[in-house]
Write a structure and sequence with these properties.
single chain; 9 strands; five-stranded parallel beta sheet; binds guanosine-5'-monophosphate; Rossmann fold; alpha/beta; globular
Length: 207
């Protein structure tokens, strides 16, 4: 499970998109976890692709039935990860990519810390963060103001993450992300077939 978090406007969505495209090209398609949210849909967003947009009532019912792997209230809206698609992808042996906040990340740690690799994306400056929020131009000014007001709380959680990337240059940030992924995939503990492989090597030596 690869988790990407950042304050709103740090450029995380672009990194998620680039990584998804790259992995798809390489024939190792990630399962991109699509969250449910009570936030209103932005004009550029598609229901079922960026989020499943649902009512608060439906969200609360899902939460009560234990259908969410994690959930949190962010900027006044509820967000959560549907459990079943993630569990099915993991059973198929697929890596899963999450774009969730620090509250959700801590819940995934509680559930299975060893299976989570977490990356926090920082903006190069607050001026750039503001510019990105405003460039998006899809959110009303009070929504942008609320997101900016939450920035200190979100920034404070950088210490909860395995890796931190400062997103000054999107290509450099993307290269770092790919390097993290490549290294984490060859971690000894993530290669359960290694014991048999080495046995095979030893057998070949003898034979
Ligand atoms: P946005 O409204 O900009 O799409 O997302 C706002 C924040 O909510 C982002 O930090 C995003 O990572 C976070 N978020 C999106 N989906 C989830 C989720 O399922 N769980 C949690 N905990 N956070 C989420």
């Amino acid at each position: 499970m690869l988790v990407l978090s950042s304050p709103s406007g740090a450029g995380k969505s672009t990194l998620t998109r680039l990584l998804t495209e790259e992995e798809h090209k390489a024939g190792r398609p990630f399962h991109l976890s699509v969250s449910v949210t009570t936030r209103p849909r932005r004009a550029s967003e598609l229901n079922g692709v960026h989020y499943h947009f649902i009512t608060r009532q439906r969200f609360e019912a899902m939460r009560a039935r234990g259908e969410l792997l994690e959930w949190a209230e962010v900027h006044g809206n509820l967000y959560g990860t549907p459990r079943e698609p993630v569990e099915q992808a993991l059973e198929r042996g697929q890596d899963v990519l999450f774009d969730i906040d620090w509250q959700g990340t801590l819940q995934l740690y509680d559930a299975s810390r060893d299976d989570v690799v977490s990356v926090f994306v920082l903006p190069p400056s607050i001026a750039e963060l503001k510019a990105r929020l405003e460039r998006r131009a899809e959110d009303a000014s009070d929504v942008i103001a609320r997101r900016l007001a939450n920035t200190p709380i979100e920034l404070a959680h950088w210490t909860d993450y395995d890796y931190v990337i400062i997103n000054s240059d999107v290509q450099a940030a993307f290269d770092s992300l790919k390097a993290i992924l490549a290294a984490e995939r060859v971690r000894r503990t993530r290669q359960p077939a290694l014991a048999d492989f080495v046995e095979g090597l030893l057998g070949e030596l003898k034979g």
